Amino acid sequence: MIRKLGCDEQLSILLEIFFKKMIRLLYAKNLETHQCLLVNKTSSINIECK
After folding, report:
1. What is the pLDDT confidence band of residue 3, given thresholds at 50, 70 and 90?
2. How far is CA 16 from CA 9, 10, 11, 42, 48, in A?
3. Would you kindly state where each structural domain of the chain is located, as residue ranges?
């Protein structure tokens, strides 16, 4: 049985980084369009921003 280790930990760290970057981007770009999705929380975590 393969157990995924530290997924919640990775997620919280990535979310923290993600929100810091987003806040910085929002201030820098003055609320320009920002559609960001956190995808695939269970296996591999990908943050997609368009």
Report:
1. low
2. 11, 10, 9, 17, 15
3. 7-49
